[in-house]
Design a protein that fits this description.
163 residues; alpha+beta; two-stranded antiparallel ribbon; 5 strands
Length: 163
Amino acid sequence: MIQMQIRTPFMEKITKYGITAYWHEDLENGSTLMQKAFDEQYPFYKSILNANKSAKNNSDFIQILEDDVLSEKIPVYNDEGKMIEVSKNITVIDYAYFVSPFFANHMAGVIVNGSFVDFSYEVKPYDKIRIISDVNSSGPNCEWLNIARTTSVSYTHLRAHET
């Protein structure tokens, strides 16, 4: 048997230097490059941070991880055509907050596969989702909490939008 690994030069740096590879690549912009890579390539970390913010205690944190972060994932496409993985059985409200809390707080509508859908629409595998936002929209309300299925939508987001 033969074991073989194929890596790009940057993948080799990641293997050798770990997270500090971003600073070896670009000393001035290493932090920005690392954050961009985490956001694009490792959304799992963002989910853990959101779970930590939403949890009231340790057992709540574990429950959120089980329900939101470690749940079965499905692929969907954003409005740029990029495929991302999201939790199965979420609504477009959950999707919006997963992608961008700012745009979600100003969400005026959602287009899925070329058609406007209700905010309670359940995301399906391979849906192409576009969030329509408007800074003048009425924004999130308590009804959204009843529709949302993950902790990415919380009273914290609603309160932040009201101020």
